[in-house]
């Protein structure tokens, strides 16, 4: 979302490299969760094909799963003396989403390191940037298959296939044969139309020049600087032809066929988002508060909030998806073992051991991203002994990864910023209430431990009564609540207990405190203090104090979590709080609704690091930002985005109608929902829409806006979608590989779209922008309009409207100025022409009458000869000095007026800043006064500029009037050249 860097392929992707041991293969014994060893010695040879895009993790050693059946364990050698079968184990985790995962378990037969090679390699082959870019363009061919061709189930398939049962030999079924078969099966009239628009003119190929023009004009991002990012050269385009054109004859003639053109559209050089956006592209050295952090709420749940299973596996899957902030709801263990556990309190959800969760976090924390992981504890363990055990587990299992002592460079002092993700690389941070020495405690388990120094909030001034245990206020509690009246929005968060010394020592840079007000937080100025808001309280703060909320999030962290009434584990829209700069917007990862799809799509970028740098405007201390603004932000270039849905490929295997929705998410003024195509009639195999483009005219903050393109069946069933950051969208024709609800690539389903993303230009400035882009075309258009006026109302009326200017442009000696000479003359008088003044042209006409009639033996003096006369040059220099001096005086008056107006502004500005904290009414009153003052100042400045402009025009007219008078004085001083006689006697040659 951050860093408006229009797409340029600066990242050179290296080809995928599979370890040799995986290519050659090895012998394994395989079992699943329900495998049992029967008495009959049958051997089952089971052949499975697992799509690599479904692989979520690989585990070895003690983290691999062990067989449950005792007989299988005995066969594999578990429990034998001096045997370590764990070193031979490999578990492959796969599934369509985070909840529904399955396990394939293997044990090597040969004693080698195949299991170690498999760890992290298999999943890494796909989840890297290369795997995601090439997923649509690369085919995987099973060359071991032999048999009849299967039938495709879509009604869009050509009928010629339905009655065929042909066999293809293994050695003949090459990748090239398969692609040709697919091209014959799926005719592409949409690509034919694109070739025709480019200029193929009925030919089945594009020339090198046509392809180069297409890439540099249609496919190029118009927001790019041509000097920093030059267009492709002929040599670079020729390399593309050599790479994608399968026909050697076309290659030799520097031509690209339709088949090669289709390959190029799906190639890695033509992705809708540049590859470097998928790679680590953000600056990771800014303070922690400068990033959006991928965050989870009630991470352990697999279903609803009231019933369902809690799972240790969910912590692994959430971390593997790139999440960097996970939640642990800890409760006191039973007296039998006194082992704390994790569950959703006061519900029927199951319990999971705290220790197993910590082990799972330690194993999976940094597989996907090396950047810091935040453990958000909701601590209900009111036993000092069990809290000490929790702290011990964290220390022993996490080891050096657990950050206990703050860095010397970043002490826990007011005014000191938080360390950066780069400096916290590979570290685990604990968010838990910190013990404070205020008041006295009473009897009880944790009360005895805290009897001498009971804790309370750092910013809490109340002291508990003697002999009475005062329950600590939750960091997620925004205001005092009646203990007899529980809040349904906050759930169990408001019933946390105080922390012991052991747990307090684990807390450093993320210390939760109760939120009082933005003013109090600003005065304390402690970056390491953070507050949590239930979504309803967060919306209240955002509505009442939007700019103050943004300012708070520039220095301190804030966490937003779903309200307690979302018992179905639904999610709120995270974009609302991203707009305010909230870092940890926690969602229910088990629910793949629209909000979660948006979250997964956004955090896919920046190498799934879980950290996205906020836009600069939301990080700078010298700038105020209102997330509800509807105006263009100072220093931010708004964008215009156009999306045209052309066609789809392999969208469904059923004969159903398909439609596409296009949504924009961003600031409230940028959010647009929903554009929708028509529904294709029973064709889901290769539907063609090719409708008018959907236009988002003004995207105020492109670095915070995202485009969602989603495909649905006619009944509303989800097919696939893609989330695209507006600041990185590449213009031109592109294939979009669709993703599932869990953001896994679907490989074959794709859309062909045409996109444009360029700087926004207001409608009233469109003509000026076009004139600046192409001034020659603009001048030619003015000529054309003038001629049309002559044909419509007559030349005499046009002359009456413009004086002698029209005749001066169309007749006289300057009528002979063509090409660059005339364009130069137009350029010199462009300002006067735009304001309706044709005095320059009239002077040119007058100049033509100053040339005396010559005899048949002497040619008239040309304009160029008169221009080079010393007197003429001297006159021009004199006029230039006069005009320059006049403009200098005018600028001096403008500067004086600006200083006078600026002296009036600070009073209103200071009162406005003071009113921000005093109240909303004073703020709006100050804003109104400022607007009135600005209007008055602008009106005065415009009046001054109008009078100055009139004086400058009068001066120019006087200068132009002096030209014909001067020519009479020096016209005889220029020696005339004899002219050749022409047929017709009286005719002479004109210059």
Account of the protein in words:
By secondary structure, this protein is an alpha+beta fold. The protein is built from 32 helices and 27 strands. A 6-stranded mixed sheet has the order 15-16-17-18-9-19. It has a 5-stranded mixed sheet with strand order 12-11-10-13-14. Strand 15, helix 18 and strand 16 form a beta-alpha-beta unit. The N terminus and C terminus are likely disordered.
Question: What brief labels describe this structure?
Answer:
disordered C terminus, 6-stranded mixed β-sheet, alpha+beta
Write a brief caption for the model.
Its EC number is 3.1.4.11. By secondary structure, this protein is an alpha+beta fold. It is built from 32 helices and 27 strands.
Largest sheet features: 6 strands, mixed
The structure class reads alpha+beta
Number of helices: 32
Alpha-carbon distance between the termini? 62 Å
pLDDT averaged residue by residue: 77
Give the overall shape.
globular
Strand content: 15-25%
Instruction: Give the strand line-up of the largest sheet.
Output: 15-16-17-18-9-19
Question: How many distinct beta strands?
Answer: 27
| Whole-angstrom Rg | 37 Å
